[in-house]
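=== RUN LOG ===
request id: a7f3
mode: sequence -> structure
chains: 1
length: 151
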Amino acid sequence: MESWRKAGGLLRLADLNIRRSQGEIARLEAERLRLTARRADIERQIASVNALLLAEYRHNQVLDRAGIYEARRHEAVLRAQLSGLFFETDTLLGEEARLAMEQQTCQARLRYWSAKQNKFQRWVADKRREARMKRDLADEAETQERTVWNR
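=== RESULT ===
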C-alpha cells in the first residue's frame, strides 16, 4: 500500500513539472514572438534609412564646398544609424537563438516528465488490475468453497 502513496506523489510531481514546463514554453514563445516583432520593426527602420540614403545622393547637382560637407555629414549620420540598427538586429538574433535553445531544453524536460507520468500511470493501472484480479480470484475461491460446503 505504501507504494501506492509513493506513486501518487510521483504522479503529482510529474504533473507539476509538466505544468511548469508548459508554462515556461509558453513564456519563451511569447518572448520569441516579441523579439521577432522587434526585429521586423528594426528591419523596416533599416529599409527607411537605406531609402533616405538613396534619396540623399544628388544626381547632376552642382554643390559648393559647404553643401558637400553638409551632405557628407548627413550621410554619416544615416550610416551611423544603420550601423546601430544592424548591431541591434545582431543582438536580437543572438537573443532569439538563446530563447530557441531554452525552449528546446524545456521541451526535452516536458517530454521526460510526460514519459515519467505515463510510466507511473501504467504502473498504477497494472497494480490496480493485479489487485482486482486477486480480489476476483479470492471471491471465486470463496464461492467455490461455499458451493462445496453446501453440497
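=== NOTES ===
Residues 23 and 106 are 10 Å apart (CA to CA).
The domain at 2-115 is CATH 1.10.287.1490 (Helix Hairpins).
=== END ===
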